[in-house]
Each structure stands twice: as structure tokens, then as C-alpha cells.
Write a structure and sequence with these properties.
This is Lipoprotein YerB. InterPro entries: DUF3048_C, DUF3048_N, YerB-like_sf. Pfam families: DUF3048 (PF11258), DUF3048_C (PF17479). 18% of the residues lie in helices and 32% in strands. It contains 7 helices and 22 strands. A hairpin with a 2-residue loop joins strand 17 and strand 18. Helix 3 packs across helix 4.
Length: 345
């Protein structure tokens, strides 16, 4: 076969040589620098998701959805967190944290367990113009929701219809909502779901080149080991993996682990305001923060930028690395120094 192929190549070469001289097609110089016009075309054709900076096949048009997710040990592992673009983790009552999971680039089939709202979860969801989803509310949150502060679906009105109770868990750790039910509920209430949030700022390297190499970091909430959070940097995957009480955070159904590209840990004043232990949390004043990117820790400050809590350094916003982000909010007393322990690489 090799001999036959060589003979055919020689014949083809002879025929071309005997014919009229043909002009060779100009070849593109792959080493030539990219022109400004080509750069502009690349930018015009790029369609990054607004909350992850990851490339999309076409421009994102869907509204973000923010869900209050239960983090009690009896609610773990949760469903859907691995698909959230941004997750806020902060205290509810006592030393128990809850999540506000914000979805836009992708939506899981099921999210939950869904838990009750607090006013600061509503404020954070509003920063992304999200459809807000919870099951129950504090008095302050109920006033915000009933006054039309934000479009919302609540299990108090839709328990057993849009919200379903799982048979493998007990209340209040068994309320779930599906992506289909969210669409159905939004349509029923006439909510606009075609307006995406404003895009965040992204860079492939972020500011990680300036940081201290840290292989893992632990965040403590009131010294309750059940709510200790550990982020471990997986160098091979260039991602952070999350652990609660030494167990990896994975999806209940698929067992897919949460994989993160940015971890922002901020300190801010917390104040207990009633006998139930409900809190007032300052999300406006800004303050000290740690940012983890690509295996490095950077000391930054956080600012509330039109409802979004973002990292800043020397007065400039620090870009996020494209991918998923987790934001831990801890009390300023004991603050970063008292709540954080890190392991140097």
C-alpha cells in the first residue's frame, strides 16, 4: 500500500509539472500578530456568562434565580449547589449557616432543601436582580417580600404545589423546588425571566500572582465544628474543593463535588436583634477580606457595589477568575484572624 501511495504521488506531481503554471494560494501566516480588527471581532463574538465569565454559545438572556438553601447537618448533602454561579454563606440564628445560591449560567433539575428567608438574603438576591426563592421568612423578610421589594416564590404560599416535600428527610429539612416549578411559578406570577444580571469583571489570572501560596484554609463559625468550612486547592484541577465538617460538599443525586475558582471571605459586624437569635448583618460598610485564587491568598477589602459584595485592592476592583465563586461572610468579632486558619504550601 505504501509503494502504491508513493507512485500515485509521483504521477500527480508529474501531471502538475507538465501543466500550466498555477499561482499558489497565499497561506495565512500563523505567526503574524493579531490585528486590532481581529481582536475587536473576537470581543464582539464572545458571549461570556455574566456571573462566571465562562464562554457561552450565545449571549445569555435568562434572569438569575437566588435560592435560600438549608445547611443544617440533617440537610446535607444538598441538591444543586454544584451548579450555582455564586453562593453566599452566612449565619442565620445561633451558629447555623445558610446559603444563598445564585443560578444563571446553568440551572439544576432540583434545588434544596429550601429554607426560610432573612432580610439580608433578600438584599443579596436583589443585588443581582434575581427571582428570590425561599420557604418561610423572618418578620423583616416577610415585610420586604409582601411590599414588593423583589420578585419571589415562597413555600409558605406554594407548599405541596411548586415546592415538594422529600420523603427521605424530615421537616424543616425536606422542602425542594425543581427548575420546572420555578419556570411555572414565574409564569404564573408574570415575572420577567429574560433579563440577565450585569456582568462582573473577570481575568484569567485575577490577582493571584500577588498572593501567598496557601494549600487549604478553614473558616470557623462560632467554633461549632459542624459548620467548619475547609477549602482545599486541587492543583491538578486548578479548582477549590469545599468540605463541611470534614465531608466533601457534593450534590445529593449526582455526587458531583462543588468546584470553585474564587473564594472570598469577608468580615463584617453582626448583631443579635431578638430573643430568637436573629441577626442584623452589615452588608454596606465594607471591610477586610481574603480572596483565594489559583492556590494563593490575597488580602483585600470588600465593598458593596450596587448590592454585590466584591473584592477591591488599592481602590480598584479585583477581577474574578472565570468560573464559580463562593463568598463566606463571618462576624467581625472574632473576624478573619480569629475565624481563619490556613495551611501554607
Amino acid at each position: 500500500m505504501l509503494k502504491k501511495a508513493v507512485m500515485l504521488s509521483l504521477v500527480a506531481f508529474t501531471l502538475i509539472g507538465c501543466g500550466k503554471e498555477e499561482k499558489a494560494e497565499p497561506t495565512k501566516d500563523v505567526t503574524a500578530p493579531v490585528t486590532e480588527e481581529e481582536k475587536e471581532n473576537e470581543v464582539e463574538n464572545a458571549h461570556p456568562f455574566p456571573l462566571t465569565g465562562m464562554e457561552a454559545e450565545e449571549a445569555a438572556t435568562s434572569r438569575s434565580v437566588a435560592v435560600v438553601v438549608n445547611n443544617h447537618p440533617k440537610a446535607r448533602p444538598q441538591s444543586g449547589l454544584h451548579k450555582a454561579d455564586i453562593v453566599y454563606e452566612l449565619l442565620a440564628e445561633g451558629d447555623v449557616t445558610r446559603f444563598l445560591a445564585i443560578f444563571q449560567s446553568e440551572m439544576p433539575k432540583m434545588v434544596g432543601p429550601v429554607r426560610s428567608a432573612r432580610d439580608y438574603y433578600v438584599d443579596l438576591a436583589k443585588g443581582y436582580n434575581s427571582l428570590f426563592i425561599a420557604h418561610g421568612y423572618s418578620p423583616e423578610a416577610k415585610e420586604m417580600l409582601t411590599s414588593g421589594t423583589i420578585d419571589h416564590l415562597n413555600g409558605m404560599q406554594y407548599d405541596g404545589t411548586l415546592f415538594k416535600r422529600a420523603d427521605f428527610r424530615k421537616p424543616p429539612h425536606n422542602s425542594y423546588i425543581s427548575s420546572d416549578a420555578i419556570v411555572k411559578g414565574a409564569d404564573k406570577n408574570g415575572y420577567d425571566m429574560d433579563t440577565p444580571p450585569a456582568s462582573l469583571t473577570f481575568s484569567e489570572d485575577g490577582r493571584s500572582m500577588d498572593g501567598e501560596e496557601v494549600s487549604s484554609i478553614m473558616v470557623s463559625y462560632d467554633n461549632n465544628p459542624s459548620f467548619n468550612v475547609i477549602y482545599e486547592y486541587n492543583k491538578d484541577k486548578d479548582k477549590y474543593e469545599r468540605f463541611s465538617a470534614d465531608k466533601k460538599t457534593v450534590d445529593y443525586d449526582s455526587k458531583t463535588p462543588v468546584k470553585l475558582d474564587n473564594v472570598l471571605i469577608i468580615e463584617t459586624p453582626h448583631k443579635v436583634i431578638d430573643n430568637s437569635g436573629r441577626r442584623e448583618i452589615d452588608l454596606l460598610s465594607g471591610g477586610n477580606a481574603y480572596l483565594l485564587q489559583k492556590g494563593k491568598l490575597i488580602e483585600v477589602e470588600w465593598k458593596n457595589d450596587d448590592g454585590k459584595l466584591l473584592p477591591y485592592l488599592d481602590g480598584e476592583q479585583v477581577p474574578l477568575v472565570p468560573g464559580k465563586t463562593w463568598i463566606n461572610i463571618i462576624p467581625s468579632n472574632p473576624g478573619l484572624e480569629g475565624s481563619i486558619s490556613k495551611e501554607i504550601q
